[in-house]
Inverse folding.
């Protein structure tokens, strides 16, 4: 079976968030406490 057919879209989003989180965390302290990782990810995605 093709692995792509078994991939859950939600799981793919989660994997993307994990990657984004690793990129964001070094500068996480620069963000307001109320900004969650999801908010930060959405901000990044909106730039594209």
């Amino acid at each position: 079976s093709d692995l792509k057919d078994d991939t859950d879209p939600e799981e793919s989003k989660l994997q993307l968030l994990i990657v984004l989180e690793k990129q964001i965390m070094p500068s996480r302290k620069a963000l307001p406490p109320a900004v969650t990782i999801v908010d930060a990810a959405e901000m990044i995605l909106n730039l594209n």
Q: What stands out?
A: Residues 9-24 form the longest helix (16 residues). The chain has three helices and no strands. The two ends are 33 Å apart (CA to CA).
